[in-house]
Amino acid sequence: MTAFAPRAAPAIACALLLLATACRPAGTPASDDDRAILDVVTRYEAASNEGDAAALTALYADDALLLPPDGGLVSGRDAILDFWQDGIEPGITFEVVGSRATGGSGYVVGRFMVEATDTAPADSGKYVLCLQRQRGGGWLVVADIWNATPSADETDDEEGHDARTRVTRAAYHL
Questions:
Q1: What are the φ/ψ torsions at residue 147 (nearest 5 degrees)?
Q2: Residue 41 class from Cβ within 10 Å (0-12 exposed, 13-18 middle, 19+ buried)?
Q3: pLDDT tens-place string over residues 120-129
Q4: What angle do CA 71, 110, 104 make, to 5 degrees?
Q5: Of 5, 33, 119, 137, which one has the fewest beta carbons inside 10 Å?
Q6: Which of 56, 37, 36, 34 shows the shortest CA–CA distance to 45?
Q7: What are the tens digits of pLDDT across the range 75-115?
Q8: CB-CB contact of 82 with 68 (8 Å)
Q9: Are the C-beta atoms of 60 and 80 separated by less than 8 Å?
Q10: How far apart are CA 151 and CA 87, in angstroms?
């Protein structure tokens, strides 16, 4: 367990931050740090849509963890670059549900949507990015996890809503 602990530290810190603080509602961030972590999301979206694996990977810390759906744990910037070089889905957009930057740690929680292409159907889901402020003041992703939302015909209630993906604003103090 000792060998795993240093790599788990960013994810554990992010989990504790998520538990200890409430999400900030979408809209105007409260601080420069809040704006800075939301800027990472903007750059993440742009790099993805440009198919630029190097620019996307540059947003991650050297010891970052990537937790893709239906896959193993991807650890470290070099492995993350290899992962993104295998393919990036263009046409992605991000919706921020909440974010918080406190001290040197921050997170962004939201939804993503990927447009359909000639070879792939549309996709959507949710994500969490955990970030840390670096010595130079910039912010880098230390943990990135996302998963797809099941298709509507599997989960819709009588009103056509997927109850499992609704954001309960009271739960996030939005």
A1: -155, 155
A2: buried
A3: 888 899 999 9
A4: 90
A5: 119
A6: 56
A7: 999 999 999 999 887 889 999 999 999 889 999 999 999 98
A8: no
A9: yes
A10: 23
Q: What residues does 112 pair with on adjacent strands?
A: 94, 125
Compute CA distances 85 → 51, 57, 80, 148, whole Å: 9, 10, 8, 20
Prediction pTM value: 0.73
Q: For residue 163, give the DSSP letter.
A: G
Cross-strand bridge partners of residue 147: 126
The answer to whether 74 and 60 have CB atoms below 8 angstroms apart is no
Give the other-Cβ count within 10 Å of 37's Cβ.
Answer: 25
* The token pair that represents 76 in the structure block: 């470290």
Cα separation of 75 and 73, whole Å?
Answer: 6
Cβ(80)–Cβ(57) under 8 Å?
Answer: yes
Give the tokens for residue 97: 């549900």
For residue 87, CA distances in Å to 6, 92, 96, 111, 170 come to 29, 13, 23, 20, 37
